[in-house]
């Protein structure tokens, strides 16, 4: 569906540009923005590669086990009792989100969903991990800071208090809502 919407927008833009007589400006803008999109993609890829690598080092060094133990009471409160593998997958995902890794947290989120589908309350737990990933409580908004830095911000991390407050509020509301909606699951 999204591909259809984008295709319609592109066709309508081209048709309107033709009728308005500004075809050259549309072509110049499209080509210029394509170059900027590639540059931004490369910039973000570097940031993501760094943080994904650091997450891998943390996992291999045992740091994620320590984080899992620290997050264990919170995970038990939200998800109930989980097996060790599920708890590890959820804690890795929460850690990636806490570090603000955004898209780099997706693989850990997918693994957490796979593990939680085998839990005692799969629908509820899958909904909860989805809500937590969507709300994405971020202690360090790496992706947002990288974008702000790429666009010339002199203080890319100044958004930290606002990001933390809004993500905690949205995660709390989402967790409560999902828990209520899936409270009947056995």
TrEMBL record:
Annotated transmembrane regions: 40-58, 127-147, 159-182
Secretion signal, residue range per the UniProt entry: none
Pfam families xref list: Gate
Domain of life from the UniProt record: Bacteria
Keyword entries, A-Z: Membrane, Transmembrane, Transmembrane helix
Domain (Nucleoside transporter/FeoB GTPase Gate) ranges: 44-147
InterPro entries: Gate_dom
Protein name in the entry: Spore maturation protein A
């Amino acid at each position: 569906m999204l591909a259809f919407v984008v295709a319609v927008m592109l066709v309508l833009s081209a048709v309107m540009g033709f009728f308005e007589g500004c075809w050259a400006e549309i072509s110049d803008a499209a080509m210029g923005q394509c170059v900027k999109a590639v540059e931004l993609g490369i910039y973000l890829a570097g940031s993501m590669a760094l943080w994904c690598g650091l997450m891998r080092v943390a996992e291999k060094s045992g740091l994620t086990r320590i984080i899992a133990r620290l997050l264990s009471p919170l995970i038990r409160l939200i998800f109930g009792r989980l097996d060790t593998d599920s708890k590890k997958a959820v804690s890795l995902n929460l850690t990636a989100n806490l570090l603000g890794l955004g898209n780099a947290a997706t693989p850990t989120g997918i693994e957490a969903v796979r593990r939680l589908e085998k839990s005692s309350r799969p629908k509820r737990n899958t909904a909860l991990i989805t809500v937590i990933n969507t709300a994405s409580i971020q202690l360090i908004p790496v992706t947002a800071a990288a974008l702000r830095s790429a666009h010339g911000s002199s203080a890319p991390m100044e958004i930290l208090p606002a990001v933390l407050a809004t993500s905690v509020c949205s995660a709390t509301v989402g967790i409560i809502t999902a828990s209520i909606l899936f409270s009947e699951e056995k």
